Amino acid sequence: MSNPEVKAFFDEATFTICYVVSDPATHHAVIIDSVLDYDAASGRTSTSSADQVIAYAKENDLTIDWILETHVHADHISAAPYLKEKLGGQVAIGSDVTAVQSTFKGVFNLNDLVTDGSQFDRLFDDGDTFEVGSIVGRVIATPGHTPACVTYVIGDSAYVGDTLFMPDFGTARTDFPGGDAALLFDSIQKIFALPDDTRLFMCHDYKAPGRDVYAWETSVAEQRESNIHINKNVSKPEFVEMREGRDSQLGMPKLLLPAIQVNVRAGHLPEPEENEIRYLKIPVNAV
Question: I need a labelling partner for 41 at 20 to 30 A (CA). Which of 5, 64, 200, 274 fits?
Fold first, then answer.
């Protein structure tokens, strides 16, 4: 099994980890779950987080083949279009993004939104493969948090999006449109079926109670043994009951409304209106 080099970029404002995963033999690479900085109070964007990724890629002479999304994020805005402009690469996501687009087109009344996924360069189905230089990547559909969630397995590493958090923090919520706790349980079993020593990389970390540092790398064996929400001793009915009960107590992510509108468009902001200003919508009493 090949061992890609993994560089993590932690964005504390959104608790998001973006990864650059590269093949040491060929210097080809992918970027996973990028971040466009967004200040909700002012409505201003900046590219400081993405610029760190760009600097790393250039310093290490990396050729970016793919800019991958594990799902349509509800807690940060993707920097995929900006990274593609600066570094190249194809923007890709799971093929069930079309279901997410159809749902939120109605919520936000996005009359201009095409819901066939064509905003992305590639839609991955379960079992599809892609190349990172000499390393083969594989796509596992892992719905539950959202319908379009996928896990990318690259060599001895896997990038699970929000499906799992660190073992002391648990699992993803399933109360967004199209979420399903029973599906999430089944999806996690697919991840648990990977080799024990597979390196698992989280999309977020929030520091579990009692832990003083952020962390985002674990293993299949560690998750299967000690995840506080789902491990080898937790049954499916037990997990569903826990997950649904916990979800009913959670608040909305603070960037959900702007993030979803942008991320269903593959990270593209809405087109400027006649005054040359772009606008995001806030649905009142609708979500």
Answer: 274
Tokens of 166: 């660190």
Superfamily of domain 5-263: Ribonuclease Z/Hydroxyacylglutathione hydrolase-like (3.60.15.10)
Number of Cβ within a 10 Å radius of residue 107: 15
Task: Report the C-alpha gap between 176 and 259 in whole angstroms.
Answer: 14
Q: Splitting the chain (287 residues) into consecutive groups of 10 residues, what average pLDDT does each group show?
A: 91 97 98 97 97 98 98 97 98 98 95 96 98 97 97 98 97 94 98 98 95 97 97 96 96 94 97 96 88
Rounded to the nearest angstrom, the gap between the alpha carbon of residue 31 and the centroid of all alpha carbons in its chain is 11
User: What whole-number distance in Å separates Cα of residue 230 and Cα of residue 1?
Assistant: 27
Domain boundaries, the chain: 5-263
DSSP 218-248: EEHHHHHHH-SSSSTT--HHHHHHHHHHHHT
